[in-house]
Amino acid sequence: MRISAFSDRGHFYKGNLHTHTGRSDGKLPVRDVIDIYKKLGYDFISITDHNRVFKSDEFNEELYILPGLEIHSMKPSVHKTHHMVALTTYENKLVEHDQLIDNVPWTGSEESAVKLSAKMKQKDMYLVYCHPVWSRMDPIEYIDADFEALEVYNGICEYKYNQGNQELHWDYLLRRGKKVFGVAADDCHGGQNHNGRGFVMVKCDELSDEALLESLRSGNFYASRGPLIHDFYVEDGKVFVNCSESKRITFISYEFLGGSFEFEKPVCECSMRIHPETTYVRVEVEDAGGLKAWSNPIFLK
């Protein structure tokens, strides 16, 4: 039996799920941000300014905007903080364009993360837990929160602090049975080199809020800094990937070891036999320039 990471139907749409503008702490107006991502060839973005919902379809004929915002719970007088991007549809009557939503008061790290996710779930939001390394959070501090995805890569954290990658946090959650997907995002604030660093490729039948969120909820997408993943699946005890030219391909699983393969000449496909008791497997592909793409896990148990 074949278990695929992607649906057979549809088209991959390129998007950024974490975008700031001058509506909060970004440097650029919305118009300029739209123009930047259009030139970069994106199909959609979500404008996720702090505490302020963006739910306007004004620019959708140029670049589709998935409604959203960023929300937090911050420990007073220190730098530990929970940040979540919250995404929704235009039909969601629980939030309005330009609505201000307050942060969740800090009552302790684990409790605050749970309260933050609960508040946004009451508003029917899809949640991405943001940049845990920058937030000075250990996975145990947010594992019980109710969110669908984790930023496995955050562009601004990589650019400013060389702390953009969060793979260890992701696998910590996965190994403990939390079925969570991986997102790459810019978290751009309008500075030079803030845009186009990390993105998602979402596979769906059409470019719409409902279709995008349905695919995000089902894991029908992958995260990338540049490489492309065309297909990823498990069949007859082996895992297969088809991708753009890669110098290294790594299959990651638990509890049994995966495998990593480095090639003298770039390849576009790779496979590996996996143990029959493997609980999940995901793949990372790396191009000649060191940029990665991350599939979502295929859950086998």
Looking at the structure, what is the overall shape? globular
Q: Domain count, please report it.
A: 2
CATH superfamily of the largest domain: Metal-dependent hydrolases
Radius of gyration: 19 Å
Average pLDDT works out at 97
Q: Please describe the biggest sheet, giving its number of strands, its sense, and whether it closes into a barrel.
A: 12 strands, mixed
What portion of the residues fall into strands of 2 or more residues? Answer: 35-45%
CATH class of the largest domain: Alpha Beta
CATH architecture label name of the largest domain: Alpha-Beta Barrel
Which structural class do you get from the secondary structure elements? alpha+beta
| CATH topology annotation of the largest domain | TIM Barrel
DSSP E strands, number: 17
The proportion of residues forming helix, as a percent range, comes to 10-25%
Order of helices and strands: EEHEEEEHEEHHEEHEEEEEEE
Note the topology.
Elements: E1 2-4, E2 11-19, H1 30-39, E3 44-47, E4 64-65, E5 68-74, E6 81-87, H2 109-121, E7 126-129, E8 149-154, H3 155-161, H4 167-175, E9 181-185, E10 199-204, H5 209-218, E11 221-224, E12 229-235, E13 238-254, E14 259-273, E15 280-286, E16 292-295, E17 298-299
Parallel strand pairs: 2-3, 3-4, 7-8, 8-9
Antiparallel strand pairs: 1-12, 2-10, 5-6, 6-7, 10-11, 11-16, 12-13, 13-14, 13-15, 15-16, 15-17
Protein architecture, described:
The radius of gyration is 19 Å and the shape is globular. The longest helix is centred in the middle third of the chain and has 13 residues, at 109-121. It starts with a strand and ends with a strand. The protein has two domains: 8-224, Metal-dependent hydrolases (TIM Barrel); 229-299, Sandwich (Immunoglobulin-like). The protein contains five helices and 17 strands. It is of the alpha+beta class and 301 residues long. Strand 5 and strand 6 (81-87) form a beta hairpin. The strands form two sheets. Strands 1, 2, 3, 4, 10, 11, 12, 13, 14, 15, 16 and 17 form a twelve-stranded mixed sheet that branches. It has helices spanning 30-39, 109-121, 155-161, 167-175, 209-218; strands at 2-4, 11-19, 44-47, 64-65, 68-74, 81-87, 126-129, 149-154, 181-185, 199-204, 221-224, 229-235, 238-254, 259-273, 280-286, 292-295, 298-299.
